[in-house]
Amino acid sequence: MxxxxxxxxxxxxxxxxxxxGTEPNKDILIDFLNExxxxxxxxxxxxxxxxxxxxxxxxxxxxxxxxxxxxxxIGEKFIVELQKAKQNYFKDRSIYYSTxxxxxxxxxxxxxxxxxxxxxxxxxxxxxxxxKSDNKVYHxxxxxxxxxxxxxxxxxxTYIYLEMPKFTKTENELETHxxxxxxxxxxxxxxxxxxxxxQEKIFAKLFKQAEIANYxxxxxxxxxxxxxxxxxxxxxxxTAYNEGKMEGKVEGKIEGKIEGEEIGLVKGAxxxxxxxxxxxxxxxIIAQVTELSEKEIEEL
Length: 300
Prior knowledge:
- This protein is α/β, with parallel strands linked by helices.
- It has two domains: 13-214, no CATH class; 218-299.
- It is built from nine helices and six strands; from the N terminus they run H-H-E-E-E-H-E-E-E-H-H-H-H-H-H.
- The chain has a six-stranded mixed beta sheet with strand order 1-2-3-4-6-5, with helices on both faces.
- Strand 5 and strand 6 form a beta hairpin.
- Helix 7 (257-278) packs antiparallel against helix 8.
- The longest helix is centred in the C-terminal third of the chain and has 39 residues, at 217-255.
- It is globular.
- The two termini are 39 Å apart.
């Protein structure tokens, strides 16, 4: 096999699951979560992987969203997902899927409604449109908040989003363990060796697991296919999104900025759907990414 890069891209389905979603590499996920959530929860000692089917997603729908669903020893739930490209109503979708771990805690008979905490962690390979002018904030932590008291109203529901394109620190600028984690996620596939500052044991294991030369022919083929899907889908969605945005601005000069941008986004979604349809993606996947109905997609 011809190897171009030394390490896998963690933004592929294969890469994400290889590093974070396998039992032998559970300690890698635990280290990442402990670093991310140390202010909110006690140290995570162990995790149990749960089926993502419990989140109400079909196998087909997860080609645009890679996710891991797990719980710790005290029953707290963690949804760790990697979103590859911009998507209409992303925040709505994220909130919606977080309700499944809440509903699953319901007990038959006499139940006092006590809930265990639910954490949704989104590693985003894009920037929120509404926050694009603020390059300093790339780590968002959201809870139910009381505007009057300026305090957290409910601390058992947490959403954390990492806008990876905004993280631009170089190796020499890394100060914390959290910095190192983001640096690895952002730059892994472009590195040729483990950086000198990343000498922790957990990173030594991560880089070993990420080295493509260690994979057999089957694993390498799976990764190459996963990488192609990632690049094709991201390029298709980003191109159509930008085209739709430009059309929205032109339309906005005539019909009003807000209305024009909405028209542009709809056109962009249709262009995305058409390109994905031509590329052979299934209707369910196209509908998941574009928010168009399968009937609309069939008519394109």
